[in-house]
Amino acid sequence: MISKEEVEKIAKLARLELTEQEIEKMQRDLSEILDYFDLLKKAPKPKSNYSNIPRNNGIADLNGARKDEVLQRDDAQVQKLIAGFPDKKDDYIKVKTIL
Amino acid sequence: MDLTTLTIKQSHEGLKNGDFTSVDLTKAYLENIKKSDLNAFITVTEELALEQARVADERIALRLRSGQTFGLLCGIPCAIKDNILIEGLNCTASSRILENYVAPYDATVIKKLKEQGVVFLGKANLDDSAMGASGETSIFGATKNPHDRTRVPGGTSSGSVTAVAAGEAAFALGSDTGGSIRQPSSFCGVVGFSPTYGAVSRYGLIAHASSLDQIGPITKNIEDCEIVFEAISGKDKMDATSTDYKFEELGISLKGLKIGVPKEYFAAGIEEEVKKIIKSTIKKAEDAGAEIIEISLPSTEYALACYYIIGPSEISANLARLDGIKYGLSENGKDLLDVYLKSKGHGFGPEIKRRIMLGTYSLSSGYYDAYYKKAQEVRQLVRQDFEKAFSKVDLLFCPVSPFPAFKLGEKLDDPLLMYLADIYTIPLKLAGLPGLSMPAGKTEDGLPVGLQIIGNHFEENKILAVAEEMEKLLT
Fold first, then answer.
1. Which of B63, B109, B466, B474 has the CA that lies 20 to 30 A from B57?
2. B contact residues 283-322, partner A, Cβ 8 Å cutoff
3. What pLDDT digit, counting tens, does each position of A12-70 carry?
4. Domain assignment of residue B475, yes or no
5. Number of domains composing chain B
6. If we measure between CA atoms, which residue out of B132, B99, B286 comes closest to residue B208?
7. B174, β-bridge pairs
């Protein structure tokens, strides 16, 4: 079974606070699911090299990236986004200190 | 006349002939919603709906006076899954973390429906953050199956499907990542369609797993499905994966059509009654002139494990944005890390946490090769299976789910058991293919069973043409 320490380590990487009960249940659930994933070990290797596997879902022309540019939005739209900030100063998002 | 039993086309005819107005139609659906105990809706937008209906009626009157036609969807009331943004309305994804989130803009599919003059009855219930297979993980409580209130409607588009099945909407939009449109459609006896990856813009859909998510229609019949699909599909500059694609009617029939039946979809685990119904449906296609060819998709057994690595990996990245900083639930903390930990810890439900953990684990140093990389390789095997199949056949016929709707609470505490409900709907998503669920029959207990029709990329027209013929054979 996956250890308590390992669950805590992964949870921290994911920035997820878990209660003691949640950690315990997570140990059981993840172990069961990861055991099930072992099935993949017997799957054959695909013919194409991993780095050549298409990331576009096998369909052509899905990876058209757009230009990295600032698009003008109307003010009403901007105000709606700002209204959704949990904490703000003027039109800026306010956050806690990092350290 | 009960207006809520009418299809989109029938409602359109009624509006055209002046038999009733969009306001009448909207009121009839709202009445059903109010009387209902199914919990299909999270938000009912009565005022908005009636206002939209009045506008639609004016638009229709104006067009008719000048001898013009009007769009098939004009004045038709629908339900929208509550993970699709409608400007100014709450969009919760049935999650604690977005419980009070107000959509700042319209999703592209909503913009398109608004242009058509569609009426929005409200936002439909779903599994928390569109993760689940039963509709039970919603923070607003489970939706009930209209065919048997002790059973689940399936998930995650639980409310959208229930609304259409119970006469609480003329049609609905859902989203399908691993089966979230098709599986509940099968459980509730309606038509549900997950289009080709890239056929419909996802701009304004709350992201789940971006290499899999698609928006699709849930309707009373195949004709309606085609109408809604045509209205929402096409290229959108706001979604780089959407493609320039125009649906074209296709004059094909079952006669001479090659239908593949994947033998792995009838192996251990499928309930006898489901198997019998699907086999007899396939026999009907054969009697109508189709050639039935048994095929093999040998990587099917790996698809579920592959999906539950790729899906959660993408979830762990996508849901990182819900951190209590820019929008959504924000908990107070002593420093930035504490805000993240608490907001996510309190805001995400058990299934979301499970998947974020699985994804973070699969992507973490030391496990990446064994899990994420391996899953990407297996995904390629699954794609190749389908490629090979479609070099020999036109379409695939198979069940949607190995069993009909199960009891409320039956699988809620066993994640792996719940995951198995999507075992036949997942593989085609890994290959980016379109799949449809349509009612094929009912079990002795009166529970609907769906037939799944799978097509090659962007062959929605082939699926729908054949499904329409099947619909006639089955009624």
1. B109
2. 299, 301-302, 305-306, 308-309, 316, 320
3. 999 999 999 999 999 999 999 999 999 999 999 887 766 666 655 656 555 567 788 99
4. no
5. 1
6. B132
7. B216
